[in-house]
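hiii so um. not sure if this is the right channel but i have a protein structure encoded as tokens and i wanna go backwards to a sequence. like what aa goes where. can anyone help
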């Protein structure tokens, strides 16, 4: 009894330390974004602001409705891309999990091969821009690179293959169920943990993506997602700071008041805040993965 109690105390202590190590960087990020620029440059980053200031957030939201439009565009892109990613991944992974699928090993190898080798950035850009025509469209933020991941396909295939017993498939086939019926009535309900996990991976990738906006959105700034907009704001601040000596004294004085370091901290916090708010609600699906594959008697 005492040994179990000592183990529990040790385990809880270790988990508290790990949790603190995970949370503290976010706290430091928030506190740095709320610190006055001059104090931040003089004293460095601190968990307790030497001088409280909302200047960084005022600079971000001074852009008017751009920040809110970018948030709306990001939510639209993330929701659409995640649903499409889950659907395509599940439809691809389920047949690969069937042992009787013809050429199953060959198809699996081809999926794995794309994880090791790809055409590169330039051919991909030419394909998506010149032939598919996604440049300066919302599809340029959804289709390239993120719509389907070979890693997600293999993860989902492995889950379907190992966590859903073959006896369920056999019982459904004896009852006359077709493959689409088995997929919708058995595979998807029992595969909810892996679907949520893959959906989380996809949503994080879409939310944090700024490469597609950099490559494929060049003219229509109204299509900027939040990461693209914030990346542009950081680039503008850096450009103005580096060229402040080439402008008039009044403009140079104005530029010196821009909280460049604090803005970068505030931008990072603004970008990750929705993910931090939503992620805890998905945790319950992960813990169910152990029990869902069991055959109920």
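sure thing!! here u go:
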């Amino acid at each position: 009894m005492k040994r179990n109690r000592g183990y529990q105390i040790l385990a809880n202590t270790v988990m508290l330390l790990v949790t603190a190590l995970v949370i503290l960087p976010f706290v430091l990020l928030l506190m740095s974004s709320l610190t006055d620029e001059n104090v931040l440059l003089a004293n460095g980053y601190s968990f307790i602001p030497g001088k409280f200031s909302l200047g960084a957030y005022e600079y971000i939201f001074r852009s008017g409705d751009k920040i809110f439009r970018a948030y709306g565009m990001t939510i639209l892109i993330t929701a659409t891309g995640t649903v499409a990613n889950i659907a395509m991944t599940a439809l691809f992974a389920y047949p690969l999990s069937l042992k009787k699928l013809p050429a199953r090993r060959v198809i699996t190898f081809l999926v794995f091969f794309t994880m090791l080798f790809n055409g590169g950035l330039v051919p991909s850009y030419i394909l998506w821009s010149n032939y598919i025509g996604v440049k300066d469209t919302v599809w340029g933020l959804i289709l390239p690179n993120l719509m389907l991941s070979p890693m997600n396909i293999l993860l989902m295939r492995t889950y379907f293959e190992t966590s859903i017993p073959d006896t369920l498939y056999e019982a459904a086939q004896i009852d006359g169920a077709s493959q689409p019926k088995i997929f919708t009535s058995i595979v998807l309900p029992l595969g909810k943990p892996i679907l949520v996990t893959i959906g989380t991976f996809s949503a994080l990738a879409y939310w944090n993506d700024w490469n597609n906006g950099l490559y494929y959105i060049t003219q229509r700034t109204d299509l900027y997602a939040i990461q693209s907009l914030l990346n542009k704001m950081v680039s503008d601040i850096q450009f103005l700071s580096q060229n402040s000596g080439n402008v008039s004294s009044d403009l140079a004085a104005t530029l010196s008041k821009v909280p460049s370091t604090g803005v970068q901290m505030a931008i990072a916090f603004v970008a990750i805040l929705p993910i931090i708010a939503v992620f805890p609600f998905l945790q319950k699906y992960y813990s169910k993965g152990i029990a869902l594959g069991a055959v109920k008697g």
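oh and The radius of gyration is 25 Å.
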